[in-house]
Prior knowledge:
Layout: E1 3-7, E2 10-13, E3 18-25, E4 33-39, E5 46-55, E6 58-63, E7 71-76, E8 81-86, E9 95-102, E10 116-117, E11 121-126
Parallel strand pairs: 2-11
Antiparallel strand pairs: 1-3, 3-8, 4-5, 4-9, 5-6, 7-8, 9-10, 9-11
Amino acid sequence: QVQLVESGGGSVQAGGSLRLSCAASGRTFSNYARGWFRQAPGKEREFVATTMWSGGSVYYADYADSVKGRFTISRDNAKNTVYLQMNSLKPEDTAVYYCAASSAAGVVRTKEEYNYWGQGTQVTVSS
Length: 127
């Protein structure tokens, strides 16, 4: 049974940092895209960042414009884990953050392309 489990969420003041982790079990995701999405109350789930396999040991990252320069996605395939380092947090970053995995090729930014999802972790940024 495949499971994705997020951790690292919490409450922080604006300007602070958090690091989210997403540990996978049940299969290996080294050649899958691993992404992060978020959903604020009353809003659609939106793309945040993804790290995509390009072949061999090469991976590329892609970010939503709203987090570019502040968030960094990384992965440790040996641990089957993906991370999201979030710096310079803003109140508008407040949301439930979900990790996901996709077997689709190319740039994978839409939630419909992701096969597996975690349960989410709350991030709250106060002003």
